[in-house]
Every structure is written in structure tokens, then in C-alpha cells.
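R.M. (postdoc): so does anyone remember the format we settled on? I'll just put the C-alpha cells first.
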């Protein structure tokens, strides 16, 4: 176990500022997911932590010990930090157990560490297989086992589940999470997949343009995003124009409770964020509802997403769970009701940080 602390780290490649100022603390034994779009600097950050890149500025500490700064750096092999790359990391000519035992000293080999860590990732009985006789998911399990085998205090995972299909990914996430827990490793998982970050991590650190924009428990980042861009990146967002008066705001969906995103949110015109699961359906013209027309329906089996349009033209989205209900069809009128609290943002954010639009309704 070890606390990992990254302070003011910068890294440029020529004129590309890959990390512009990264501050991040990963508590001992915690799993932090760094969530951001492709190209925002996630892999660069991991390479700096592992010691494969030199820092332009800032420091990295493990348990209070400085392992990297622009002036002094501990070589990668002495950092005791393991990295699980995206894919294809196994030695093709070595059996599973030898892949896993590769970095182990004699006493760990004797003690059967490789077999123990294979158990941990659900590969009991696969010791003697060759990598090309394994599925993609099994190969990734071996890669995780190999990283965990020497009991590194810190484990870095660079989008390790990307190449796998959705069902396999969910299962592997859970097994890897348990293996990391059993071993007590401090872990940083980078991903562009918000479901992966929210479901696996103790804390989610949202990254954009080489900076950590917000970090906190998954619930906090989802419910109280720091800015509209984060709101749209971590989940589906419904944006409504509104007029705020204290802790309430008038919106096209009626008056709702609001919490301001920061002190800069004015009284008067604002825009508010709702999540689609905060909007529920009722028969049209039920008391306390607003009429809307369904313009698109995405049925997922366990739930459904509806894109709707209010009579004034405002687009909204609702996620419906009711297992007994038949989701309304395109063109149907429904009544909408808002639950819980909305988050209020200033009416005009910086255009670079504009939210992605509400799940789009086709133009009619
Ligand atoms: P991510 O992993 O989030 O997709 P990366 O850390 O790989 O992002 O890249 C961040 C930025 O740095 C990108 O603009 C990328 O093109 C650039 N970059 C990454 N590695 C190099 C490199 N070795 N040389 C030049 N530019 C690089
Ligand atoms: Mg990357």
C-alpha cells in the first residue's frame, strides 16, 4: 500500500502541452479512475508516474518519497510501480505461469506466487496454456496477474479493457477490482469510458486538455459536476433555460429546486442540469405535469431513453425504468414530472466548455 501524490506536473511534446498542470492524490489502497477523452493526456500521465517520461515541472511522490521531478528521477525499475497496458503485452513464447512469474524473485516463485495471483484473477487451471490459446479477456487477466505478481504498491492500468466486448468487460472489471482489493494495491485506471470509471473507482478524476478538472467520489462527480462539460462527459444531460430565485428556478418543466454549481451563479437567468432519470412520465395532463411529445425512443431492454419535445420546442430526455410499462411510441403525448434537485450554472459558460447537446431529437 502506498499513497501516490502528483503535484503540478507538466509535460510537453514539442508544442503539444500534453499535461498542463496535473494535481492528483491517490490515497493508499484506493482505486482512482482518470476519465477523459482521447488525447487529453491520460497515457502521458501514466508514463510519467511509471518513469517512462521525464517531467517538465512538478513532482511525483510515493508515500512521501519523491520519485520524480525535473531535476531528480528514480528509474522505472526501482519505482515498484506496475503498468498494465492496453493489450498485447504477453510474451507469446511463454506459458501463462511463466509470463506471470517473469518478474518474480526465486523465493516468490518457490512460494507459488504465480499460481496464487492467477487464482486471484480467476485463471485457476490455466498455468500451462500458451497465450495464443487464450481469449482476449483471458489474456488481459494474465496481464493483470503479471502486474500484481511482484506485489507492487502502485498499479497503473491504461484502458486495459478496451479491446473487449461489453459483457466481458463488465465481468473482468469486477474481477480486477477484487484482485486489486485483495492485494491492497493503490491503483490508477485511465479510461474514456464513463461507465467504467463510475462503476469501478473510489474516486473519479475528470481530465481535459492536460488538466484534472474535478475529482471526487463517483456520485459527487455525476450529481455535482464542476462545469457543463464535465456534466455532459460523465453522463446524459438535460439542459433547461431557467430563471433562478434563491433555491428554486422556473424552467419549461415547471419550478424546480436548484443548487448553484458555484458562487458565480446569478439570481435571474441561469441554465439548469437534470439527469434523464430525474424526469418521469405520467398520463398527459395529469396534475403537476408538463406536456411533451416523444420524438425518439431507444429501447435497451432494462430501460429506455426517450427524446421528447415540449410544446415550446425545448428538447428534453427521460430515462424510463418501469418494467411493466410499454414505453410510449414516437408521436405520443405524455406528461413529465421532475424529481430531486437540479444543478444551476451561469447562463453563458466559456464556449470551449459548452456542454454536448441533449441526446438529440431528430429535427421535425
Ligand atoms: P490519451 O492517453 O488521453 O489519449 P495521450 O497522453 O496519449 O492522451 O496524448 C496527449 C497528447 O500528447 C496528444 O495530443 C498526443 O498526440 C500527444 N502525444 C502523446 N505522446 C506523444 C509523443 N511521444 N510525441 C508527441 N506527441 C505526443
Ligand atoms: Mg491513451
Amino acid at each position: 500500500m502506498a499513497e501516490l501524490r502528483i503535484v503540478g506536473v507538466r509535460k510537453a511534446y514539442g508544442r503539444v502541452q500534453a499535461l498542463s498542470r496535473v494535481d492528483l492524490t491517490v490515497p493508499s489502497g484506493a482505486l482512482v479512475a482518470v476519465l477523459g477523452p482521447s488525447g487529453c493526456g491520460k497515457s502521458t500521465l501514466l508514463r510519467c508516474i511509471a518513469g517512462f517520461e521525464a517531467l517538465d515541472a512538478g513532482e511525483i511522490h510515493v508515500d512521501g518519497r519523491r520519485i520524480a521531478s525535473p531535476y531528480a528521477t528514480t528509474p522505472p525499475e526501482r519505482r515498484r510501480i506496475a503498468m498494465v497496458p492496453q493489450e498485447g503485452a504477453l510474451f507469446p513464447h511463454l506459458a501463462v505461469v511463466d509470463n506471470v512469474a517473469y518478474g518474480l524473485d526465486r523465493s516468490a516463485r518457490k512460494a507459488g506466487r504465480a499460481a496464487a495471483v492467477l487464482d486471484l484473477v480467476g485463471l485457476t487451471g490455466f498455468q500451462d496454456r500458451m497465450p495464443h490459446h487464450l481469449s482476449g479477456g483471458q489474456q488481459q487477466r494474465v496481464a493483470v496477474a503479471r502486474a500484481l505478481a511482484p506485489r507492487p504498491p502502485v498499479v497503473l492500468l491504461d484502458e486495459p479493457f478496451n479491446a473487449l466486448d461489453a459483457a466481458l468487460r463488465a465481468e473482468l472489471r469486477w474481477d480486477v477490482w477484487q484482485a486489486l482489493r485483495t492485494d491492497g494495491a493503490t491503483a490508477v485506471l485511465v479510461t474514456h469510458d464513463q461507465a467504467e470509471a463510475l462503476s469501478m473507482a473510489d474516486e473519479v478524476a475528470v481530465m481535459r486538455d492536460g488538466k484534472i478538472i474535478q475529482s471526487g467520489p463517483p456520485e459527487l462527480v455525476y450529481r455535482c459536476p464542476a462545469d457543463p462539460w464535465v456534466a455532459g462527459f460523465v453522463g446524459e444531460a438535460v439542459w433547461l433555460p431557467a430563471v433562478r430565485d434563491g433555491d428554486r428556478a422556473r424552467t419549461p418543466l415547471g419550478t424546480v429546486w436548484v443548487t448553484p454549481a458555484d458562487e458565480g451563479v446569478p439570481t435571474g437567468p441561469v441554465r439548469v442540469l437534470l439527469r434523464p432519470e430525474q424526469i418521469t412520465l405520467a398520463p398527459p395532463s395529469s396534475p403537476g405535469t408538463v406536456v411533451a411529445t416523444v420524438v425518439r425512443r431507444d429501447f435497451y431492454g432494462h430501460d429506455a431513453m426517450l427524446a421528447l419535445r415540449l410544446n415550446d420546442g425545448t428538447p428534453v430526455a427521460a430515462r424510463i425504468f418501469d418494467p411493466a410499462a410499454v414505453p410510449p411510441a414516437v408521436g405520443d403525448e405524455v406528461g413529465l414530472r421532475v424529481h430531486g434537485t437540479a444543478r444551476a450554472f451561469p447562463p453563458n459558460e466559456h464556449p470551449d466548455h459548452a456542454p454536448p447537446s441533449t441526446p438529440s431529437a431528430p429535427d421535425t
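R.M.: ...and that's the designed sequence above, right after the C-alpha cells. Also worth knowing: Confidence is low (pLDDT under 50) at residues 357-364. The pocket of adenosine-5'-diphosphate (ligand 1) is lined by residues 13, 16, 18, 36, 38-44 (CB under 6 Å).
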